[in-house]
Write a structure and sequence with these properties.
Layout lengths: L4 E8 L7 H12 L2 E8 L5 H8 L5 E4 L14 E3 L1 H6 L4 E5 L2 E5 L2 H11 L5 E7 L3 H13 E8 L5 H5 L8 E4 L11 E4 L7 H5 L8 E4 L8 H8 L3 E3 L1 H16 L8 H12 L1
Parallel strand pairs: 1-2, 1-3, 4-6, 7-8, 7-10, 8-9, 10-11, 11-12
Antiparallel strand pairs: 3-5, 5-6
Helix pairs in contact: 1-9, 1-10, 4-5, 4-9, 9-10
Length: 273
């Protein structure tokens, strides 16, 4: 899809903190696209009503919590791709010929953020958390990791995250605030703000791997600060937001081949400082 004028929005709750409008509006300007993009509060259970009542207003929609799983249960004309079904998480809806198509760009954005920082493959990875973002990360790690551990708070989500892997079999660990993270060359924190603070408090004095914390507000997180203090490298959620957003835009306009990530990174940094 490529249009001279695009109409988009990010949906979720809470939504007032979202940086997606700043990202997409800056991209429109860089690409010479006339467009509108806003943040709209849609609470749990409200996605289908929103699409039925206001869907005609938009060409594409970004979904954040708590709607990434809800999109899979819509009782309407919607095409969900194989990736979205495998990871059971949707962050992008695109209107094609009057009906909606659904996918996730969280995983591809995660990989591109790693690639941009100079990382392509990992031997031993730990994912903290087992929710929707963790599943997107898991699906991506299936291609670039040799082994993956998932530290979970509940066994209920284990089957869904295990199904994200096709090439490797993940290992589940019960949540442990005293867990030793120093043996991993990549740790990905997908938990909500504050959930990993006790893990951070108990972090080893020396780490060598990379921490990718998907949160961007507040940044740095306590885990991010402690990881840096212990000698490790960190990537924050702004990088994930940036590249998953670029991949969303590539579904609706002609981004491919245009290098806009540095300009968009500056735009995001300007609104967070």
């Amino acid at each position: 899809m490529s249009k001279e004028t695009l109409r988009g929005a990010v949906l979720g709750y809470p939504i007032e903190h979202s940086l997606s409008p700043a990202l997409h509006k800056a991209a429109f300007k860089l690409l010479g696209v006339s467009g509108e993009y806003s943040a709209i509060e849609v609470r749990s259970g409200g996605l289908q009503n929103f699409l039925q009542e206001r869907g005609e207003e938009f060409d594409y929609l970004s979904l954040t919590m708590p709607l990434k799983e809800e999109a899979l249960e819509l009782k309407m004309d919607i095409t969900i791709d194989d990736l979205g079904r495998r990871i059971q998480s949707i962050n992008t809806l695109v209107k094609r010929e009057g009906s909606w198509s659904a996918t996730s760009t969280d995983g591809s954005g995660f990989v591109k953020a790693l690639n941009n920082a100079g990382y392509e493959r990992f031997e031993k990875v730990l994912i903290l958390g087992a929710g929707g973002t963790a599943r997107a990360v898991a699906g991506a790690l299936d291609e670039i990791a040799t082994s993956v551990d998932v530290m979970r708070r509940s066994v209920r989500r284990s089957p869904a995250i295990a199904a994200c892997f096709q090439k490797i079999e993940c290992n589940f660990l019960d949540w442990d605030d005293l867990a030793d993270l120093s043996s991993y060359d990549l740790v990905v924190n997908t938990t909500p703000s504050g959930a990993a603070d006790l893990v951070a408090e108990n972090l080893s004095n020396s780490v060598n791997g990379l921490l990718f914390d998907v949160l961007y507000k507040p940044w740095p997180t306590l885990l991010g600060r402690r990881w840096s203090d212990a000698g490790g490298k960190t990537l924050g959620g702004l990088e994930l937001l940036l590249y998953q957003g670029i991949d969303q835009l590539n579904l609706v306009t002609n981004v491919e081949g245009k290098v806009i990530d540095q300009d968009l990174r500056i735009a995001l940094t300007n609104v967070t400082t």
